[in-house]
Amino acid sequence: MFTAQRSSEHRGQDDLLTGGLGLDGLRAMAPPAFADPAQPTAAELRRRALWSNWRGIADLAPGGGYGELFGSLAAVPGREFHAYAKVPGAASPHRVMLQLPDAFDASKRCVVVTASSGSRGIYGSIAVAGAWGLPKGCAVAYTDKGAGTDYFDLEAQSGVRADGTRGALDAGDLAFIPDAPVNASGVAFKHAHSKDNPEADWGRHVKQAAEFALQALGEALPDAAPFTFANTRVIAVGISNGGGAVLRAAELDGDWLDAVVAGEPNVFVDGHGGRSLYDYTTEAALLMPCAQLHLQDLPQPPLRAQVEALWTLRCGSLQAAGLVEGGDPAAQAKSAFDRMLANGWSEGAIRAGVLSTGFDLWRAVAVTYASAYGRYGVDEHPCEFAFSAQNADFQARAATPAEQAAWWSDASGIPPGAGVGMLGTPVALPDATLPGLQCLRALNDGDGEDAKRVQAGIAATRAAPPRAGLPVVVVHGTDDGLVPMAFSSAPYVAAARAAGRDVRYWQVRNAQHFDGFLGLPDYAARYVPLLPYVYEALDRVSAHLDGAGALPADAVIATTPRGPGAALTRAHLAIP
Question: Alpha-carbon torsion 72, 77, 83, 88, what sign?
Fold first, then answer.
């Protein structure tokens, strides 16, 4: 089951949790430098991947409370174990990793298993599971759940080796080799181009990471072997896509999991208002830019003046297409807003979603997921999207060696980013992205062959209730604008309870999806971070398993935004 196995030691100036960077190093605006930008070492790539993934998930800004009110960044010495794993029938492997702290107590065996949020690489849950488990002496097992940052350059015919460095096609241990046409150009990445629809296997990815943890523990600590699910506590935790992954793991047969904590989970169930990520993402990509013009006092996204002009254009495009009503932008914006409310969106979710609109995140997600759900390969996208390094005029070009070298450490797993851009369908001015978005939306609503193919892939991601008797705690922000709770966690909890499962639910007011963006002053003033509630839920679940307390009771947590320039306090968080 496991190949390309390797291990490494991390002590002194290179620990498990931050790679020796500590809080000051993680707060640095520039990433850790490579001595040779075109050929970084595996150690340099690891440290930079930790920097990227911490900053992408947690708010580490002064006044944000990390390391003071919640969380730990103290150095954790220990060892890492890496491998590739593959679920039956998959074309490509997923990465698994175990971090084993020196403080691990074999007499009180604890493994925290997790999956990366978004499409991030193997360190994508370091700020979630690693930050909670490692300081407590637990081993922490990770999976990139079939996505990650193992980008393949189709022109150079090079990919990412097991240790994160670049390798040629014949290197022998590349993490991802796409099935691509001869003479294909640009960049391929696993989430979009593996032809595996990885989301359908998220639960199995998590279980394989836990199985790898037990194997690695037995090899690392032979005097304490064997490590089994019967003699080792296993708690699963994740946020966003990682939250969805641990809920999918919760439904698998067997007594291998002891508890699950899922934060802001991307999870899809039938009924109870559940909607697939692809459904509401393609809807938001079309309607939200116009709908947000109806709201006053929006959080400030990047380049606000420029995007407002584009949003006004979108309103006119939607009216011309018959998707909204009204003779002027104000009336059209109200029509788009009302339509979103009627389809289940809350005003808070639409308001917080301005960040995703400003960064064009809706389109980026929809493009990648359409390819994954339909199991399309390179140059097969049904809406003709592709990926490549780009010039300033957005034309494709060859990637430089330095760009290629940094993909594994710097990318989020979905372009654009880290020097890789998205090449769209033929544009139609003045609303340049509209034709591509309409094509993406038609894959959700249409009845053509491509639409049926994508819809079948979406259907394969439906979640089932957790195993009977398994403690499950779900935590979600009421203002989540990327994975709205009305479409994800609330339907999941309702469906699980309808099946007789005891799932606990914390709804956190004034929390949106991205703790990492609370470093933006306007977001910091309006929203509280979600991570402290995930850590607290883990504390409560762990105590319950020790016989020292009850599971968390359901709660709608009435937080208080800290306001402009203020530091976060425990009173703002109002943790039950």
Answer: negative
For residues 576 and 573, what is the distance between their CA atoms, to the nearest angstrom? Answer: 9
Q: For the sheet containing 110-115, what is the strand order?
A: 2-10, 78-85, 94-101, 139-143, 110-115, 233-239, 259-263, 472-477, 503-508, 555-557
Which stretch of DSSP H or E encloses residue 153? strand 152-153
- Could you report the per-residue pLDDT of 183-222, keeping only the tens digit for each? 999 999 999 999 999 999 999 999 999 999 999 999 999 9
Nearest to 537, CA basis, from 474, 493, 460, 470: 474
Cβ proximity of 138 and 232 under 8 Å: no
Catalytic residue among 158, 240, 488, 542: 240
Cβ–Cβ < 8 Å for 151, 189 = yes
Residues ≥6 apart with Cβ < 8 Å to 490: 272, 273, 476, 505
Residue 240 bears catalytic tag: yes
Residue in the structure block whose two tokens are 């980013």:
417
Q: What is the DSSP string of 242-264?
A: HHHHHHHHHTSSSS--SEEEEES
419: left (phi over 0), alpha (psi -120 to 50) or beta: left
The percentage of the chain sitting over the pLDDT mark of 90, rounded to a whole number, equals 95
CA proximity to 362, closest of 317, 321, 311: 311
As a whole number of angstroms, the distance between CA 16 and CA 526 comes to 33
Beta bridge partners of 7: 81
Residue with token string 């995703």: 356
Q: Which of 447, 437, 293 is nearest to 365 (CA)?
A: 437
pLDDT score, position 1: 84
Q: Are 561 and 528 in contact (CB under 8 A)?
A: yes
User: What are the tens digits of pLDDT across the range 329-376?
Assistant: 999 999 999 999 999 999 999 999 999 998 999 999 999 999 999 999
| Helix ranges restricted to H, 69-162 | 131-133
235/260 Cα distance (integer angstroms): 6
Nearest residue to 162 via CA among 107, 239, 216, 93: 93
Helix (H) or strand (E) holding 423: strand 421-423
* pLDDT score for 303: 64
Residue 236 in tokens: 């699963």
**C-alpha distances out from residue 158 to 155, 171, 354, 368, 416, Å:** 8, 9, 37, 21, 20
Phi/psi for 163 (5° steps) reads -90, 5
Distance CA 87, CA 115 (A): 15
Query: Quick check: helix, strand or coil at residue 359?
Result: coil
